[in-house]
TrEMBL record:
Glycosyl hydrolases family 2 sugar binding domain mapped to chain residues: 28-193
Protein's organism: Pustulibacterium marinum
The protein's name: Beta-galactosidase
Domain DUF4982: 625-687
UniProt-listed GO biological process terms: carbohydrate metabolic process
Length: 808
């Protein structure tokens, strides 16, 4: 059904969220007791944990550091990077103390009436090797840290007494290629529901048909009892009822409902319209369970003729890959931090996310539904053949199917998900066993969800062309290897190619290297990479090389850039150089601040707003008279550049080189302090837009720019304040390195700080840090009480910065 010229048409609606009186859902976030290290008998009810730390969940025990060169130091040959001898790699997994055992305990009580119910304990993910005990009894385990899982704990509970959940986690060394983090880093919930109720993850909502004026919504609900009745109401985003129906006929453990929505509004990244369905389950006249579910109506297809289509419109993936860490916050999931990331990406014009290389958080999927992002949900970085000694290869045989099943069951109703990925650059690309594994995993995905196709990110393109591995996949995903796209397109039967991973260009925000020359694996003494965006890896390429394929080949269905944000670990090209400890690949840095590359992508991807961005900065004391090229990233075709009023000529995008096609570059400009101005022209020669940057004077004060000023008083909400050192005229000082000290008073607390420097060993949770390239980001968290918040920031020799925020 996925072959060339045969349309693969999928029609779907989807659901998220569960809440109703008949079921009680408690998120266990506060008052967890936690300790690091092995503890005997910590699962027992009577165990005394009073001297353990009290933490809230989501929690990452390793993010507090300190950074240490020796942690998980790996002397390895990274074969997928083409290395032929083993070398010592520091910082590969972030140099933070994630290895070892951690124990968590939490208490809750249940009534006698509760014992008549079914009580589920759900985990959205725990890093890793979770073993879960309730009142001292082992109830189950989950090795893979990214998997969602749950246990029915009804039979282990005691009424009117304190019940204890104990969770033992253990992270092995050499188990990851990036910072995996440590702890119960996603939410944990207790669900109390009637024994006669909806099964957990039991609803599947799809749209089997969308005609011009109506959509047919198909809801399958799995239940725990016979002889029930289901009533379903669908509301539009404005809250009006648009359809309702009752179903008395039960087929085994399921109800099947077909519901018509008239004049449906379709879900898309531009208009992420969500409906709500309210499902009520009755036994006779008694309401026994109910669920409220948000969903979207949309249909997808992948064909050789039209590539990927959303609601009948060919749509290219303008995507980024994201690891699961949130920079200075570590891996502890925070919805506001995720929302900020997506807001930044939305402005760039990005329309798709790939959760590399594992299951995404449910919060991220909820946001992608609401904010409008297409989603490629990935599962594994490793199958049976290892990349790292203690990676997923240990679990593959026993757990791969279970992990895929839970991925699909837990997330299938999200409209944002348009594709599954069974793996990333798995070494099993070699050998006939790997072909069988690819087929098997894809079939598991199809069995669980016949509505979406499956891909694998492939880097061994020659091998997968020869073995049949690439041909059997629904979607052939190529990681890099732009020179092999044509050949793969010819050899593979699908009729299209997707850039499942692209670019891996490296840069450090605000750092520029001279002379400006393209090159791979470039290294400098300061362990930084150039923001002229001309440096990449031996296996990768510059963004422009991908753009050419995306633009010229209709059969290329889009790309997922490596990566949207820098992440902890994998400090290529400095993985052998301490103290590099986080990546350089990001379009934005670890603090979430856009690098220049952000504007290169924005100039192509954001089709509703203009982009006109000048680089480098213009503070080059000591380079007077020296050649200092100027690049402009813009959607306009041509522009004229002026230095202190003198024209440097007009540049126009051309086909001379890939770069000339997408960037305006003045390669011979000489530095002199003052003003650089760019004037972009329309095709008819009129002025379209202007922009200028100026040489800054001495650092004078601080500019504080919060991403919002109101917080919710829920103890979780976050504000991100970008702090810039500026001169007396308010011009940003792009080279300022100033130690800042943060003080937060009132209804908020200091949460973290980050400057985006991949070599900084300062911990994120102490309120002092140096600015890097003149900037850093301060994160403030709300408390559970409302009120004003005052943030003041001091830096020696600088006027204090102060800002008032409000929590309500
Ligand atoms: C890819 C890999 C990613 C990351 C990237 C760096 O090969 O899939 O996880 O390692 O290279 O360029």
């Amino acid at each position: 059904m996925f072959f060339k010229k045969v349309p693969f048409l999928i029609l779907c609606t989807f659901s998220v969220g569960l809440f109703a009186q008949e079921r009680e859902i408690t998120t266990l976030s506060d008052n967890w007791k936690f300790t690091k290290g092995e503890v005997q008998n910590a699962q027992n009810i009577a165990f005394n944990d009073t001297d353990w730390e009290t933490v809230s969940v989501p929690h990452d025990w390793a993010i507090y550091g300190p950074f240490d060169k020796e942690i998980d130091k790996q002397t390895v040959k990274i074969e997928q990077n083409g290395e032929d001898k083993a070398t010592e790699k520091t910082g590969r997994t972030g140099s933070l103390p994630f290895i070892g055992v951690g124990w968590y305990r939490n208490y809750f009580s249940v009534s006698k009436a509760d014992l008549e119910k079914q009580i589920l304990l759900t985990f959205d993910g725990a890093m890793s090797n979770a073993k879960v005990y309730v009142n001292g009894t082992f109830v189950g385990e989950r090795p893979y840290g990214y998997s969602y899982f749950y246990f029915d704990i009804s039979e282990y509970l005691i009424a009117d007494k304190e019940n204890v959940i104990a969770v033992r986690l253990e992270n092995q060394p050499f188990s990851s290629r990036w910072y995996p983090g440590a702890g119960i880093y996603r939410k944990v919930q207790l669900i109390k529901k009637n024994k006669k109720s909806f099964q957990h993850w039991g609803q599947t909502i799809t749209t089997t048909q969308i005609l011009e004026k109506e959509a047919l919504v198909h809801i399958v609900s799995k239940v725990n009892e016979k002889n029930l009745r289901i009533e379903t109401t669908i509301k539009n985003a404005e809250g009006d009822v648009v359809a309702s129906t009752t179903e008395n006929d039960q087929f085994g453990d399921q109800f099947i409902q077909n519901i018509k929505i008239e004049n449906p509004k379709l879900w898309s990244p531009e208009n992420p319209y969500l409906y709500t369905s309210e499902l009520k389950l009755y036994k006779g006249n008694q309401l026994v369970d109910s669920q409220k579910i948000q969903f979207g109506v949309r249909f997808i297809s992948y064909t050789a003729e039209n590539g990927f289509q959303l609601n009948g419109k060919t749509t290219k993936f303008k995507g980024v890959c994201l690891h699961h860490d949130l920079g200075p916050l570590g891996i502890a999931v925070n919805k506001e931090a995720l929302r900020r990331q997506l807001t930044i990406l939305k402005d760039m014009g990005c329309n798709a996310i790939r959760s590399s290389h594992n299951m995404p958080s449910l919060e991220q999927l909820e946001l992608c539904d609401e904010m409008g992002f297409l989603f490629l949900a990935e599962s594994f970085d490793e199958w049976k053949k290892p990349k790292v000694k203690n990676g997923y290869n240990q679990y593959f045989d026993n757990w791969a199917e279970k992990d895929v099943v839970n991925l699909v069951k837990a997330t299938k109703n999200h409209p944002c998900i348009v594709m599954w990925s069974a793996g990333n650059e798995v070494p099993d690309q070699y050998g006939s066993e790997g072909v069988k594994r690819a087929k098997w995993l894809q079939e598991v995905f199809h069995r669980e969800d016949p509505t979406r196709p499956v891909t694998v990110g492939m880097d061994q393109v020659k091998a997968v062309m020869a073995s049949g591995f690439g041909a059997l996949l629904d979607i052939p995903g190529l990681n890099y290897r732009v020179h092999l796209y044509e050949e793969a397109y010819e050899k593979f039967p699908q009729g299209f190619i997707m850039g499942s991973e692209t670019a891996s260009t490296v840069s450090s925000r605000g750092i520029y290297k001279f002379p400006v020359e393209n090159g791979y694996n470039k290294q400098y003494e300061d362990l930084q990479s150039s923001s002229y965006d001309v440096e990449y890896c031996s296996w990768s390429n510059l963004p422009d090389d991908d753009f050419v394929l995306q633009d010229d080949k209709p059969w290329v269905i889009g790309e997922f850039v490596w990566t949207g944000f820098d992440y902890l670990g994998e400090p290529t090209p400095y993985d052998e150089y301490w103290p590099s400890r986080s990546s350089y690949f990001g379009i934005c840095d670890l603090a979430g601040l856009p690098k220049d590359r952000y504007y290169l992508y924005r100039s192509r991807w954001n089709t509703t707003e203009n982009t006109l961005h000048i680089l480098p900065h213009w503070n080059w004391e000591g380079r007077e008279g020296e050649t200092t090229p100027i690049f402009v990233y813009t959607n306009f075709k041509k522009a004229e550049l002026f230095i202190n009023g003198k024209s440097q000529g007009v540049q126009e995008k051309s086909n001379k080189t890939h770069q000339n096609r997408y960037r305006l570059m003045w390669m011979d400009t000489k530095y002199e302090p003052g003003t650089v101005k760019v004037v972009a022209y329309n095709d008819d020669g009129t002025v379209a837009m202007e922009k200028e940057i100026k040489t800054a004077g001495k650092p004078h004060h601080l500019k504080l720019e919060p991403n919002k000023t109101m917080l919710k008083a829920n103890g979780e909400d976050l504000i991100f304040i970008t702090v810039s050192v500026v001169d007396k005229n308010g011009i940003e000082c792009p080279t300022a390195t100033k130690m800042l000290k943060v003080n937060v008073k009132g209804a908020g607390s200091f949460k973290a700080i980050c400057n985006g420097d991949a070599t900084s060993l300062d911990v994120f949770h102490e309120p002092n840090m140096e600015t890097f390239s003149g900037k850093l980001v301060v994160i403030v968290q709300s408390k559970k009480t409302a009120g004003p918040i005052e943030v003041s920031i001091k830096g020696s020799g600088l006027k204090h910065g102060k800002i008032q925020l409000q929590s309500e």
